[in-house]
Design brief:
The chain is α+β, with helices and mostly antiparallel strands and about 290 residues long. The protein folds into three domains: about 45 residues; about 70 residues, no CATH class; about 140 residues, Phosphorylase Kinase, domain 1. The protein is about 50% helix and about 20% strand. It is built from 13 helices and six strands. Strands 1-2-3-6-5-4 form a six-stranded antiparallel beta sheet. Helix 1 packs across helix 3, helix 2 packs across helix 3 and helix 5 runs antiparallel to helix 7. The chain is elongated.
Length: about 290
């Protein structure tokens, strides 16, 4: 007996169907299981969820103004065509009398099919217009991709979107192998050109779980992921690129507290659902160690 996993990786179509509640219990369970295991899939699901727009209300208004009454009248005439009315000149014309032969009267083909075809075409054009306006790029309208939207808002916004997907279960079963963890730190150090060790980036209540190499706007980005006190996801992120030095500041995005600062070559941020004072202390310790 095959299962959902045998059918390959989760596609965008399945994610959309999941968000729309169109999957059966087995399909929904499969998507939820895969999302928990795949961080990239988590990010993709969140993008699709946040990309939702209130199209429904707009198209409801269009449907309300559709020529439904006229179309219904046309279809009614097709189903119940009115009795033909004789022309007055035809009524006054004497009936021909033919002896020894039958009279064959040629009639015009029934015009009902023309009306039916017209109704079908109108319905198709109207429905097609709604479909194309939803999914086909209109002339002169530029489609903004998720990557362009993120780039416009900045790297901290992108990290906040990603971090908001994390839950305790995302990280609790990782980071148990110290050798693997140290290898990950060496990989991000080489990627950034910045010497980083597990001991150097582990602060206070943070338990180091893993380190990943990423990219944002063509710039190298790394994420060091932790659990604070074994339950709260926290990340220390570094992006490489020329920038103007900036002292430590704080902000909040998507309900998560952020402490960030910049040097001439790197941008740094610590993000998580921790009190501002606690997050600030962690960030200052990391700043001192890396200065």
């Amino acid at each position: 007996m095959s299962n959902w996993r045998d059918e390959g990786p989760v596609t965008d179509e399945q994610l959309v169907a999941y968000l729309d509640g169109m999957l059966d219990d087995e399909g929904a369970a499969h998507v939820e299981r895969e999302v928990k295991l795949d961080r990239d899939l988590q990010a993709r699901l969140e993008l699709l969820r946040r990309g939702d727009r209130p199209f429904e209300e707009a198209y409801d208004a269009l449907l309300a103004n559709a020529p439904e009454r006229r179309l219904q009248e046309i279809l009614k005439q097709v189903k119940e065509p009115p009795a033909p009315q004789a022309d007055e000149s035809e009524m006054q014309r004497p009936t021909p009398r033919v002896i020894g032969a039958s009279v064959s009267i040629r009639r015009e083909p029934w015009a009902g099919w023309r009306m039916l075809a017209a109704a079908v075409v109108l319905l198709a054009v109207f429905a097609g217009g709604l479909f194309s306006s939803r999914f086909v790029q209109l002339p002169g309208v530029k489609t903004q991709t998720a990557e362009q939207s993120w780039a416009k808002r900045g790297w901290r916004a992108a990290v906040a979107e990603y971090q908001s997907l994390f839950i305790t279960q995302t990280l609790e079963n990782t980071g148990k192998d110290a050798t693997e963890r140290d290898a990950g730190m060496r990989a991000v150090s080489e990627y950034l050109g910045l010497d980083l060790t597990a001991d150097q980036v582990t602060v206070g209540p943070l338990q180091l779980k893993r380190a990943d190499v990423l990219q944002f706007g063509g710039k190298r980005l790394v994420q060091v992921a932790y659990l604070a006190d074994g339950k709260t996801p926290v990340s220390f992120c570094i992006i490489k690129g020329k920038r103007k030095p900036k002292p430590l500041e704080q902000e909040q995005r998507l309900g998560l507290n952020i402490a960030f600062w910049d040097t001439e070559e790197y941008g740094f941020m610590v993000i998580g659902d921790l009190p501002k004072a606690e997050l600030d202390e962690i960030a200052r310790t990391l700043q001192q160690r890396l200065s």
